[in-house]
Amino acid sequence: LENLSVVGLQWGDEGKGKIVDYLAEDYEAVVRFNGGSNAGHTVVVGGDKYVFHLLPSAALNSRKLMIAAGVAVDPQVLSEEVETIRRIGSNTVLVDRRATLVSPLEKMLDALLEDMRGGSALGTTKRGVGPAYAMRALRLAPRVSDLLSDDFDLSPLRNFYSILSDDLPDLGRWLDESRSVLGNLVGDVSQELEAINDAGGSVLFEGSQGALLDLLHGTYPFVTSSGTTSGYIPMSAGIPPGRVGRVLGVMKCYTTRVGSGPFPTELGEDKASEIREKGREFGATTGRPRRVGWLDLVSLSYAIRLNGVKELAVSKLDILTRIKEFRVCEAYSLDGEQTEDFSRCIGSLDRVSPIYSGGWNVEPEFRPGALSSSARKFVEFLEERLHTDITLVSYGEDRSMTYER
Ligand code: IMO
Ligand code: MG
Fold first, then answer.
1. Residue whose CA is closest, atom 15 of ligand 1?
2. Ligand 1: does its nearest atom lie under 6 Å from the Cβ of 289?
3. Which pLDDT belongs to residue 45?
């Protein structure tokens, strides 16, 4: 079995957690490769619901859970999640020693930066993830391994922050607690992954956020602070690019976005709130109501291309069955010209108008093993327009509510 990479194709919240949980069974290890506790991945099994912000969404599968070097690790969040999985599973957890730490100082800076931006705030999750990556680029951030070494000097980082505030929180307790959480979890993810593959096992890489939030290729500056596409995986995990394996893209059959930034297919509040209530579209990390819009095939095609997606999982089809005459954006109009080229429009998304095919209705019928004929027609339409096979269709939160095609 080849390695598998699962990535989000929209602005996050595509249902990656559920899909990873569903697929994890076949893989020896599941690896988070980007972001930090800004993510919120929901897994529901047998009526029990879990939200993971940092650990991979495979805690219920007893797989090895790994956090790669390219993740920003908040030890407090890690501690809570490790406690949760100790209660429900028997997983081992391994955090790469090169991963970047998020301290209370980065959370403070996240809030400060948002204030500084005023009317053009990004709407970050304020989990300190952006500042942590910034400190890493400045070579000020402590890594996981630094926490465990006796001679690591935090004063350059503190000195930096003292430019911003003369009332900095003391990091003594944070350091002690972080050491005790991370002490037995630290290792070399890159080496472990190579060992698993060499012994014939396979691994699953779990992305957080989505392609349109990618730091380089997303809707900058309204993006997150790490890579979110399959290209970031080998860098983060410390493996050669060929080991990324098959790339499975996850898309929701409508679109949501949390935080600020352009959103061509965004709906007015009446329709948005209908879908938001039915689809329970509230942030799993911050509880914020998500902005809601129709499915956008223009941005999806871009995300598929960026990631080298070979197959798709579509989520929340059950929600669309409850929406009469829903629409799908098949092209944009920019300055009076019709285009399907997202790259061309990415700097002008505020000015594009979506061109829809309309009036879709899908029967709310889900029987184990078979899609209703109207659902099948819709899925086949998506496959044709996106030139990509849809191999999984999710029609409910629970692991069991999944079709394999
Ligand atoms: P999952 O993995 C949806 C968004 C924030 C904000 C922007 C920058 O659950 O899909 P950040 O805190 O990362 O600096 O915020 O990115 N954002 C997400 N939106 N799902 C996520 O993760 C997100 N992680 C970050 O709302 O607009
Ligand atoms: Mg989420």
1. 124
2. no
3. 87
Alpha carbon distance 304, 387 (integer Å): 10
Asked if residue 302 has pLDDT above 90, the reply is yes
Annotate 362-397 with DSSP letters as a single string: ----EETTEE-HHHHHHHHHHHHHHTSEEEEEE-SS
pLDDT at 42: 94
- In angstroms and rounded to an integer, the radius of gyration of the C-alpha atoms of the chain is 21
> Using the 8-state DSSP alphabet, how is residue 288 labeled?
P
Give the number of the ligand closest to the Cα of residue 123: 1
- Tell whether the model's pLDDT for residue 60 goes beyond 90: no
Q: Which of 43, 209, 252, 288 to mutate to test the pocket of ligand 1 (most atoms within 8 A of CB)?
A: 209
Question: What are the φ and ψ backbone dihedral angles of 224, each rounded to 5 degrees?
Answer: -90, -175
What's the whole-number mean pLDDT along residues 62-67? 91
Which tokens in the block code for residue 1?
């079995």
SS3 at position 91? coil
pLDDT for the residue numbered 388:
98
221 neighbors 213 (Cβ within 8 angstroms): no
Q: Rounded to an integer, what distance in angstroms lies between the CA atom of residue 19 and that of residue 345?
A: 30
Cβ proximity of 38 and 131 under 8 Å = no
Provide the pLDDT for residue 192. 98
What's the pTM value of the predicted model, to 2 decimals? Answer: 0.97
- Element holding 315 (H helix, E strand): strand 311-315
Ligand 1 site, residue 125, Cβ cutoff 6 A: yes
Residue pair 32/54 in contact (Cβ under 8 Å)? The answer is yes
Whether 369 shows a pLDDT value over 80: the answer reads no
